[in-house]
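User: Fold this; tokens only.

Assistant: Input:
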Amino acid sequence: MKKKIIILIIITVFILTAFLVPYLIFINKAPVLIVSDEGFISYYGVKRIKKEALKISLNLFRPVKTVSVANDAGSDLAALAVSEISAQPYCALFPLRFAGAAKYYREKNPQIPVVILEGRYPENANPSSFSLGNNTSGYFIYKNDVESDFYKAAGAALIIDKGQNGKIAVFIEPGILTQARTAFLQGLKDFKELFNIEIGPESLFFSDYSSFYERNDISCAVVTTIGIEFVDRRTVNIPIILFSWIEPLYAPDNAVIIIDDSPLAQVKKAVSMVEAGEEKGKIPSKFQFIKMKNFDKETLRKLTKTW
């Protein structure tokens, strides 16, 4: 009996050690910090942020923490908020609107890698220079991968069209129109070949919502901030692929895919690029089904293949 108790104690200690040691290592690692304003947090959803941060933390095996600052916080206060969360973070990520805070923070903490997430800007544009000055060396500056996002969105729109050979309305910000349009058309071409679709839908591109007019032959719409009025005003149940940070639960009823192009969606890739020493680069957005019941298994399988 005594021998069994000893064996049980040894097993228990072994199990506890197996779980406790990795946990202690994890919580003592320097965290990754990402600055978020209150507007983003309320729009993205507090629970969703916590869930995504935990998921990324486990994937990186390093704590990921959001730094909440007021929408109108000055650069010095935003930088101070980062320092208060951790004096020695692994790296600190700042969305472009906080580039001034990133500069202030880096001047005070030159040993900490500082990342600026520029969003969807033209390939050759360098918007960070407006806040950092012409010399942006030493910063890690990453953009959303416009080509990858619109290439994959084209494949998804093609499948959603379901052979109707209708029109796909694509709303794109003016600054990236040429870049995104080229990628979208290439995506249509490549995925038509992949899925043996002979004709396929035609694309209509808009960089200004006022140039769009009502029509009844649209089989799918790809919507960025430019086309948000299309979502708000139309009552026809046209499937929408939506570039948005919105909590999927609150997305429009006809939104079938959310493309999460938020800074939070970029954290995992950004950290790996910092570790690789890549000072500039592009990060694809995350595609997510939100109305899976609208698709049969074969359609879902094809949609998944597009990204």
